[in-house]
Amino acid sequence: MNLLELRGVHTHVGAYHILHGVDLEVPAGQVTMLLGRNGAGKTSTLRTLMGLWTASRGTVSFKGEDITQLATPAIAARGIAYVPETMGVFGELTVAENLLLAARRARKLAELDTARLDWLFGFFPALKTFWGHPAGKLSGGQKQMLAIARALIEPRELLVIDEPSKGLAPAIVLNLIEALRSVKAEAGTTVLLVEQNFRVAAELGDRVAVMDDGKVVHRGAMAALIADTELQQRLLGLSLGAHQ
């Protein structure tokens, strides 16, 4: 069963035709990797499904409901969390306040789910260390951790993440992999992940869709792509194995 589906999605931004009929399926309970060369349309696809850009043609469906024309807050309210490539943390607010903003069930810090926080601190201990510090003073990698933790502060049905390992040290990347594995295994959360780190793609992906020139040109099992170096070269211009 597909939790999310894009059918024939076109997106225009001003005079530019960005997406050219994207067809994408995201099966429930799995991690779907969205891969492709720079400029292929991956981030544009995420922005469109989140309503940040409006599709000019085609449909975006979540749990069978057409959400194509919904505003971003209405899409998020359906249980979709989005971590943009830019992270989008609030620099003047503390780490704690950033997490509180994302926890719709809590109105003050004392109401945050402490068990959930401890679970997040296990993967990203720096967030506990800098709990009361302004987020703007964190390193780039720590801001990325905060952005991901903010998306995970409450259970979500779909987690949409744009290049989460970007700027992270290798040890933190391993923590990220374990966190996302845990989210899928323990909570049954579905994940759609854009990632340039092919080790992360290989470790996490169940399914893969490869984009080129604003459309999906390949879809299938991630394991099959990992095993086929010729297909990797043709679709991505490089070998996944060389980056593990």
TrEMBL record:
SUPFAM superfamilies: P-loop containing nucleoside triphosphate hydrolases. GO terms for molecular function: ATP binding; ATP hydrolysis activity; branched-chain amino acid transmembrane transporter activity. Keywords: Amino-acid transport, ATP-binding, Cell membrane, Membrane, Nucleotide-binding, Transport. Residues 4-238 form the ABC transporter domain. Signal peptide: none annotated. InterPro entries: AAA+_ATPase (IPR003593), ABC_transporter-like_ATP-bd (IPR003439), ABC_transporter-like_CS (IPR017871), BCAA_Transport_ATP-bd_LivF (IPR052156), P-loop_NTPase (IPR027417). CDD domains: ABC_TM1139_LivF_branched. The keyword Amino-acid biosynthesis does not apply. PROSITE patterns: ABC_TRANSPORTER_1 (PS00211), ABC_TRANSPORTER_2 (PS50893). Belongs to the ABC transporter superfamily. This is Amino acid/amide ABC transporter ATP-binding protein 2 (HAAT family). It comes from Roseateles saccharophilus (Pseudomonas saccharophila).
